[in-house]
Design brief:
The complex is a heterodimer of chains A (332) and B (343).
Chain A lengths: L1 H7 L2 H19 L6 H26 L7 H18 L5 H26 L3 H20 L9 H7 L2 E4 L3 E4 H19 L1 H19 L4 H27 L11 H10 L11 H20 L7 H27 L7
Antiparallel strand pairs in A: 1-2
Helix pairs in contact in A: 2-12, 3-8, 3-10, 3-11, 3-12, 4-5, 4-6, 4-10, 5-6, 5-10, 8-9, 9-10, 11-12, 11-13
Chain B lengths: L1 H29 L1 H4 L2 H26 L7 H19 L6 H32 L4 H20 L3 E3 L3 H8 L1 E2 L2 E2 H19 L1 H11 L1 H6 L4 H27 L1 E3 L6 H11 L11 H21 L3 H36 L7
Antiparallel strand pairs in B: 1-4, 2-3
Helix pairs in contact in B: 1-13, 3-8, 3-11, 3-12, 3-13, 4-5, 4-6, 4-11, 5-6, 5-11, 7-11, 8-9, 9-11, 12-13, 12-14
The chains are: A mainly alpha (332), B mainly alpha (343).
Chain lengths: 332, 343
């Protein structure tokens, strides 16, 4: 009974139930929805948001907020794209190396500004978003990149047979790997515990507890940057070309997914599983709206309502949680 | 002690005036014909109107330690409401008095809508204690979505001439939008400095817990601040709609970053509790000069975006070192008096 109650209090349980309900609604409209090939196809199309949201979640968990992620992804993607079309003997490892390290460098700039100037992360990343994107677009003259080489295409269309006629794309494998690695870091390493400490207690308390706050801050932003960087491979692979204008400006759905997944902006709470469910739920809703022939105009309204409702629910949930933990609330 | 605070505020303003003069002289030398013309100054002043009002709306919320990301979306939404009212109610053979009444109705509706949005923000932030970033982000998404639904991603245009005079009229050669901006800047400055609510806004921004324990009703003050922010964005929206003679869901999109940039440039701390209206007004004028200058010099949009981002980070640097410097001064002066300051 106690376990059941505990389960009921979790955001993840709610999200899971809503996802099931929503899937059944879509299933009633379209009988092929629950076929494995369709589900794997959907997961493939969610994998970009999935990987990026893990990075956004990490920063949120540490008590910050990131707006520059689409700009970082775009810059990494463009750098990688200009490299792979200019070289004759490139390979996938090099492509990953370029976009991954580009993401780390840009993430490190964010982390540096956040740690040394102790300024609201929203403002830092608002600045770097415009700086990164503006500089790149200025120098690249916002040209699109077509004709990606065959080896790159071979990689992005690679898939593992799954069941009878379903295919599991390499993107889904990347997504699962990212989740597993991040989960391991968060759960079993000092750095990962430090992220929770930083978000839950603030810089001073984390430092008093013996955490190296500088290392943790830099790690969070670099690792998130790395995830944005490798996610750019998926973005380029999905549409088979590199459009520098395709991502920036679409930050809100991802932040919404992370928040819906139960991460609080105050930091220190939320789980990777919840965030992943949040991504799946919001993407499902978008697919469902299209399937129900709701015009795309209404998507913003639906998103806004979902964000507002979920932050209010999270707020009440956290409040009742703190009430059960301690009755006396004396702060210094 | 008092003189020192005065000095630090004063030196901030002196800094901004120096930057203003440098930018002004620089642009005058680079392109005297276009920049120094009367028509350029008139157009700059009318552009400053709506932007200045949005910035004031953002300023009060940032002084209290929050942020209002929904300010531009709210203004665009109110503008669309104005447009819809005109489209529905104005018929060609209407008498001027009726047109005037319709305009009055549209203005009242726009202001009411903006203030209701402010009220919702204030309730969620003040009474439920949710972070202002999230609340205003959610409301921004919702409002943008609603605007798109109303306009079907298009625009509403063709407003009565009487309404357009709000943006086109000028007094003694000064455009009305600019006069409105200055009037509201003075009002907000008086409100922040001379009323108890204004004082509470600064105090909540610097330490929320202390104000709560000293008997200030934080919730009400936060609510009032967001209400004021909504009201100012409503006034800005009326000017913007009249100036463009149309309303669209994406109008003013580039203003959001710029309002935050200007406020930080104007010496407001990003964590709240400090900042002056005069500093922000000077920063607005600097930004307007630069925007016009970039236009005249033919910079690409993306270069401009990069420069804004760079300037935002530069403003962060400046604020950081300035606060470090004033902090060192305060500690020194406290040390002279034999007091010690705890972290």
């Amino acid at each position: 009974m106690k376990n059941f109650k505990k389960l009921f209090n979790k955001t993840e349980t709610f999200l899971f139930i809503i996802i099931i309900v929503f899937s059944l609604i879509i299933f009633s409209l379209n009988r092929s929805f629950l076929l494995p090939e369709n589900l794997l196809g959907l997961l493939k199309s969610y994998s970009f948001s999935g990987i990026v949201s893990v990075g956004v979640f990490l920063i949120l968990l540490s008590g910050g907020v990131d707006l520059s992620f689409m700009a970082i992804t775009t810059v990494s993607m463009y750098m990688m794209g200009s490299y792979i079309i200019s070289t004759s003997n490139g390979n996938v490892a090099l492509a990953f190396l370029i976009c991954g390290s580009m993401g780390i460098i840009l993430g490190a700039i964010n982390g540096f500004l956040v740690y040394y100037f102790k300024i609201a992360t929203l403002i830092v990343t608002l600045g770097t978003m415009n700086l990164f994107y503006g500089v790149m677009m200025f120098f690249s003259k916002s040209r699109d990149i077509y004709n990606l080489p065959q080896w790159f295409r071979n990689f992005t269309t690679f898939s593992v047979p799954f069941g009878k006629n379903a295919q599991m794309s390499v993107f889904i494998i990347m997504w699962i790997l990212v989740i597993l690695v991040t989960w391991f870091i968060l759960k079993y390493t000092v750095l990962g515990r430090g992220v929770y400490a930083l978000g839950g207690g603030g810089i001073n308390k984390a430092r008093q507890a013996g955490f190296n706050v500088r290392a943790i801050t830099m790690f969070i932003y670099c690792y998130a940057g790395f995830l944005y960087g490798i996610a750019s491979v998926i973005s380029a692979g999905t549409i088979d070309q590199i459009l520098p204008t395709s991502l920036v400006g679409k930050e809100m759905p991802i932040i919404a997914a992370v928040v819906v997944g139960g991460a609080s902006l105050a930091g220190g709470s939320g789980s990777l599983f919840g965030v992943t469910l949040g991504v799946i739920l919001l993407s499902l809703i978008r697919n469902g709206l299209t399937l129900m022939k709701v015009t795309s105009y209404y998507q913003g309204v639906v998103m806004g309502i979902i964000i507002l409702v979920s932050i209010i629910i999270t707020n009440f949930r956290l409040r009742s949680l703190t009430k059960t933990i301690s009755k006396i609330d004396i702060e210094y | 002690m008092k003189t020192r605070i005065f000095n630090s505020k004063f030196s901030e303003i002196i800094n901004l005036v120096i930057i203003l003069v440098i930018v002004f002289v620089g642009l005058s030398i680079l392109d005297p014909e276009n920049f120094l013309s009367v028509s350029n100054f008139v157009s700059m002043m009318s552009q400053m109107g709506e932007f200045g009002l949005y910035t004031l709306g953002m300023l009060v919320v940032m002084v209290i330690g929050g942020i209002n990301l929904s300010i531009i979306a709210s203004a665009a939404f109110s503008g669309i409401l104005i447009g819809v009212i005109f489209k529905r109610l104005i018929i060609p053979e209407m008498s001027p008095i009726m047109i005037f009444l319709v305009i009055l109705l549209a203005i009242i509706v726009a202001l009411a809508a903006s203030m209701i949005i402010g009220l919702i923000n204030g309730m969620l932030v003040g009474y439920l204690g949710i972070s202002s970033i999230l609340v205003t982000l959610g409301l921004m998404t919702l409002l943008e979505g609603t605007s798109i639904v109303i306009t079907k991603a298009g625009g509403v245009s063709g407003f009565p001439d009487m309404f357009l005079t709000i943006a086109n009229k000028s007094l003694l050669g000064i455009p009305l939008p600019f006069i409105l901006f200055i009037v509201f800047a003075v009002i907000i400055s008086i409100y922040l400095n001379k009323t108890s609510t204004g004082f509470s806004i600064y105090m909540i921004g610097s330490n929320e817990k202390v104000t709560r324990f000293s008997g200030i009703n934080n919730k009400v003050v936060i609510l009032k601040t967001f209400l004021l922010s909504g009201f100012l964005s409503g006034i800005g929206s009326i000017i913007m709609t009249a100036r463009f003679n149309s309303a669209r869901s994406d109008y003013g999109g580039s203003y959001l970053l710029q309002t935050i940039l200007v406020i930080l440039l104007g010496g407001v701390s990003a964590s709240g509790g400090s900042g002056t209206v005069i500093g922000v007004v000077l920063a607005i004028i600097i930004l307007q000069f630069l925007t016009t200058g970039f236009n005249i010099l033919g910079f690409s949009t993306f270069l401009t975006i990069a420069i804004w981002g760079f300037m935002l980070i530069l403003a962060i640097f400046m604020n950081h070192y300035r606060s470090k410097f004033t902090r060192a001064l305060t500690i020194k002066s406290l040390g002279e008096k034999g007091l010690s300051q705890k972290d």
